[in-house]
Each structure stands twice: as structure tokens, then as C-alpha cells.
Amino acid sequence: VGNLANSENDEFWTAARTIVEQVYQVLSPGAHAVWVCKDFVKNKQIVPFCDQWRQMCEATGFTTLHEHHAMLVHSTEHDFEGKEKRRESKSFFRRLAENKGSPRIDYETVFCMTKGE
Description:
about 30% helix; single chain; two-stranded antiparallel ribbon; alpha+beta
């Protein structure tokens, strides 16, 4: 028993699909599900996890009603020397990675979905 994110890729998607299918089964027709997810970086490339999650949910039977972006960057200011100062809601490790050149991830994706009739 460990963290699902640390498992092999196929194991993750198999387990995720099982969870999404079970959520779909317990919802009444027309009921809503809201999923919050975020892309991630692997080998210095952004992995479009949110797009993959939406595709899996739609393959299960959900219909996407809305897609929202919850910003992780709240404000950007410049000091007198022109240096940018940002107020962000990111983990220490994400900030550290971005300071070392990792691609920026500035928002989480919120999917509002409905169960088909």
C-alpha cells in the first residue's frame, strides 16, 4: 500500500478509472461531479494530465459542462528596479523547481461535469 501517484502509470490509470466509474454509478442522472486537477512536469516537459483526466471521465459517461482555471498566481508587481514580484499559492517544491528552470504551472483546472440522463 503506497501513494497512488508513485505507482506505475498503468496502475494509476486503472485505479483512477475504477474510482471515476464508481462515482458515476452512485450519482443520479443529471447529477454533477466536480474534479480539480493540475498538469505536472516530467523530464522538463509539461504533461497534460488535465486533458487526459477529462478524456477518461467522458469515456466513462460524464459530460463536461464547464472548465475553469483556478489561478495559483494572485498578483504580480514590479519594484523600483523593474524586478517582478509575484504572490503565489504554490508548494515550496514547485517554486524551487520553477526557479531552476522547470516550466511554470500557474493554475489548477476545475472540471464541472454531469452524469448523462
